[in-house]
Design brief:
Elements lengths: L1 H5 L10 H8 L6 H6 L16 H21 L26 H9 L3 H7 L4 H14 L11 E5 L6 H4 L10 E6 L5 H13 L7 E6 L9 H12 L5 E6 L26 E5 L9 H9 L5 E4 L6 H9 L8 E5 L4 H10 L5 E5 L21 E5 H10 L5 E2 L1 E5 L9 H9 L4 E8 L20 E8 L1 H6 L4 H14 L5 E7 L1 H14 L5 E6 L2
Parallel strand pairs: 1-2, 2-3, 3-4, 4-5, 5-6, 6-7, 7-8, 8-9, 9-11, 10-12, 11-12, 12-13, 13-14, 14-15
Helix pairs in contact: 5-7, 6-7, 9-10, 12-13, 13-14, 14-15, 17-18
Length: 523
């Protein structure tokens, strides 16, 4: 140690800062021994008598350092010691060694995209940056929203981060909105999320869009995305487009569209867009219907002609089907043939189309159905009821009246339909928009022998566009109530306060038993 120090100290230097730093680097041992072992030319090896001025200065500096260290090590009582703050630290400081409060303040200053990158660094930063990232994107993650998650396509990239959060809870239902600026990486992020969650954990998935997906440059990726959603293990899939479809449907070559039955776990499928029956999307739609063990099939607003409906339903066999919804563009004869092949259906709905017209179907095919819910226009409901072998005990009968149903009058047409039933627990009658007098369509004095427990009259659509006086609706409603003497409850919707009050007075005169009345007034 002394030999190396000899070549580093210039003894001709009177007071050298470098020399002092070297001396201060030594321990608090005998600094004098260090000075005697330096072996300069002016100091004798055999003597400790420092006569050389250079040796005296060296010894004095070493002594000062030694005494200073001794004084610092043993401070006297009430002595004031000078301490230097903010001394440089030679150790490495990591980012996650900072307090969580400091990290939150740092991350809060970042942009949304930077927050996303920070959340992918480690689990600590993900738990800190994740909530801030979700709040910046307006992504709901509170416990109240866990059961029902609504996410649009710009937020699809949030899902891979959300699933790794400690607060992640599997949602039972997801509502997904596809925007017109949809990109392929967003679809990949959503597909990766579905592959990461446990199979069959998300039960309901609904896809909305409001643009022409057939004209999208990423149509192949959209079709693959639909297939990934179908294979995710969900039990109910809804595909609903709000963009009007101007193209042509292609219900052709259905026999060539094959698939393995049971390839997914769907129990309900709802298609509400004509695009799903276009040539490019038809394979996905047909495979979804054929390869699933469906219990519910809902096809509405799909813009198919009656010929296309006939070709479609004749090529579908769904043994476990219990609920069916179709458009009124489907001919009654086509519908009855399909019902004859699916005797397990107990819930049938026909969506009426304004201006649609079907003559009463006279072709009767005996049906063995145990229908509990029947909803639709009289043009389809009446043929179905006529075809049943046994009058049904309906739990719910919903009649959507059209203007042509007023021949000879509404009440006669309704009683004719109800007469094919054994009993009706809930009967709802919806009046159509019209501009002619309602009183001309009443045949008073007719009563039904069918037991109806709850009668609901909805005049909201008629009241919005009708120029008929309020007395017509009052008289018509009073005749309907009189036509069902066994009714126990009456619900009315779309009435004014004056009309509802007058109707209550009329009911007091024509009803013999107690009847519960509920009125939802027109706003």
């Amino acid at each position: 140690m002394a030999r190396s120090l000899k070549h580093n100290i210039d003894f001709d230097d009177v007071v050298s800062p470098r020399k002092r730093r070297i001396l201060e680097s030594y321990s608090t041992g005998d600094i004098r021994q260090v000075a005697t072992n330096l072996q300069p030319r002016t100091i004798s090896r055999c003597t400790t008598d420092f006569t050389s001025p250079v040796a005296k200065r060296l010894y004095r500096e070493a002594s000062d350092i030694f005494l200073k260290r001794r004084a610092d090590a043993q401070p006297e009582p009430f002595s004031i010691k000078r301490v230097e703050l903010y001394e440089p630290c030679n150790t490495t400081a990591l980012l996650w060694s900072l307090p969580a409060e400091i990290l939150i303040l740092i991350v809060a200053l970042l942009g949304a995209q930077d927050m996303r990158y920070v959340a992918q660094v480690c689990s600590l930063l993900r738990e800190i940056a994740g909530p801030l990232f979700f709040a910046n994107r307006n992504f709901p993650t509170s416990p109240d929203d866990q059961c029902h998650i609504h996410v649009n396509s710009p937020n699809f990239d949030i899902l891979p981060t959300w699933i790794r959060m400690d607060t992640f809870r599997l949602p039972r239902m997801m509502l997904c909105w596809l925007d017109s600026d949809l990109r392929a990486p967003q679809l990949s992020a959503f597909s990766h999320f579905l592959q990461s969650v446990p199979h069959k954990s998300i039960q309901y998935i609904t896809l909305f869009w409001n643009f022409d997906i057939l004209a999208s440059p990423i149509l192949p990726q959209i079709i693959t995305f639909f297939e990934n959603v179908r294979a995710s293990g969900c039990q109910e899939l809804t595909c609903m487009g709000f963009c009007h479809f101007f193209g042509s449907s292609a219900i052709t070559k259905l026999a060539r569209i094959q698939g393995r039955v049971g390839a997914n776990h769907l129990k309900a499928f709802e298609a509400c867009s004509g695009m799903l029956f276009s040539p490019k999307l038809l394979p996905f739609t047909i495979q979804t219907i054929r390869c699933s063990r469906l219990e519910k099939l809902r096809l509405s607003h799909i813009a198919l002609s009656s010929a296309h409906w006939d070709k479609l339903l004749r090529n579908l066999v769904i043994p476990m089907l219990v609920e069916l919804r179709v458009d009124s563009d489907c001919a009654p004869s086509t519908l009855i043939h399909f019902l004859a092949c699916h005797p397990a259906i107990n819930d049938l709905s026909i969506i009426p189309r304004p201006g649609g017209f079907w003559r009463t179907n006279r072709t009767i095919i005996p049906l063995t159905l145990f229908i509990s819910t029947l909803d639709g226009p009289l043009s389809h409901v009446l043929p179905v009821l006529r075809s049943l072998r046994k009058p049904p005990a309906l739990g719910c009968l919903l009649l959507s009246l059209q203007a042509r149903d007023a021949s000879p009058d509404y009440i006669t047409t309704i009683l004719q339909c109800v007469g094919h039933c054994d009993s009706v627990r809930y009967l709802r009658i919806s009046l159509p928009p019209q501009s002619h007098s309602l009183s001309a369509m009443i045949w008073p004095g007719t009563r039904s022998a069918v037991r109806v427990n709850h009668l609901a009259i909805d005049t909201s659509d008629a009241a919005e566009s009708s120029s008929a006086p309020a007395g017509d609706a009052l008289a018509l409603s009073a005749v309907w109530i009189e036509a069902f003497p066994t009714v126990k409850r009456v619900s009315m919707r779309g009435y004014s306060g004056v009309t509802a009050g007058d109707l209550v007075d009329v009911m007091r005169r024509i009803v013999t038993a107690d009847v519960e009345v509920s009125v939802k007034l027109q706003s």
